Structures are given as C-alpha cells and as structure tokens.
C-alpha cells in the first residue's frame, strides 16, 4: 500500500487536500510491468465529471507520459487565472508545499519555483519552471500554456532533490460562454532514486486529481467572478 508518492506535475506539474489513493495488489503489479505500446491507453474515465486520463510509454523514456482532458464548467478566464496564480498553487496543485513567482519575464512568460511533498523517508522535491502563454485568438481558437523545467536555474537546496524534467502543455479551448475543453499532456521525471513503478503509480492518479481540484478553484467566486486586470495576457 502506498500513502503519498512523490511527483510534481506536469508539470504537472500543483497542494491538493485529497489523500493519495491506495492501490490493490493487482494494480501495483500492473504498474510494475512497463507499457510497451507508444499509443495512449485509457487510465480513467470519469463520466460524471467528463474527465479522461491516459498514459503511454515513449521511446527512450523510463517513465510514462500522461494526458488528461475534460469539459470543465468554468470560463477560460477563470481557468487561466487559477493556472497562472503561482502564489495560490498550494491550494490546489497536488502535494505542493510552496510556490512562488521568481520572475515575470513579460505578460506572456514567467518563471516560478515549487516545492513538493515526498513520502516517508524520501527527500522532498523542488523545481523551477518556465511558463510561456499563447493567448487565445479567434483564429487559433484556444489559449495554451507550455511549461518546461529549468533544473539549473537555481543552485540545489540542501535536503531537496531537484526535478530534472517536466515538459507539458495546458490547452484551454472555450466551448460556449462558461465551458472550457481543457487538455494537458506531458512528461515528468522527479529525479533522485525512486522506483519507476512508484512514479508511474503517481502519474496514473495525479493528473485526474489535479483536474478535479483545478475545476473547483476555477468555480470559486474569487476567480469565477473576477473582473479586474490580469497579470498576463489570456486573449488578444
């Protein structure tokens, strides 16, 4: 049985109050067996919340890539406000202990720091990420945020393991006035000595938990009814 397992995400990766779910022996055995297909395989289909998650093993990578998608009952602006509000990421991003903005490069780019809980006697993880925003345009039809880890941006911190890789995107496609088809896809390597099957277990569950928590935040009045100026450009 596993209680909490390390991962950021995808960039995934952001502190969810929900506990990590334990897996039965059959599921753990399945995760110990590596995927052999480069095709996306359905992991979870939540028909009630309209959320699906997928995994696949890409050539040359020891860990699974992840994908999550869902029709969210929130506006593009509310979703984008939540996603770019770095200081409040510990309120919704899974197992995040700390998040802070390091540099606002422009109204379409920013660099931020995150620290994540790790289980039991494993050292916590930290990471620096660069996020680039492609604003929504009528021609493009969506807004997208691309996130990439910058492991050498800050010196290593004592007692922490630096996340070595995170490449992901979050895509926001408006569907009507107050719905967004949200997609996120990427790959995360939290660094250090952690069994691959343990990380894969997290990657199997965490994208779904983050999707649910992101939606809840976007439906909060502070984001859903916000009308003031935004720190970044979401639309052109």
Automatic annotation (TrEMBL):
- The species this protein belongs to is Fluviicoccus keumensis
Gene3D superfamilies to which the protein is assigned, alphabetical: 3.30.530.20
Protein name from the UniProt record: START domain-containing protein
**For this UniProt entry, which residues form the secretion signal?**
1-22
GO cellular component, as recorded: cytoplasm
Which UniProt keywords are listed? Signal
Q: Could you cite one Gene Ontology molecular function of this protein?
A: lipid binding
Q: Which residues form the START domain?
A: 37-163
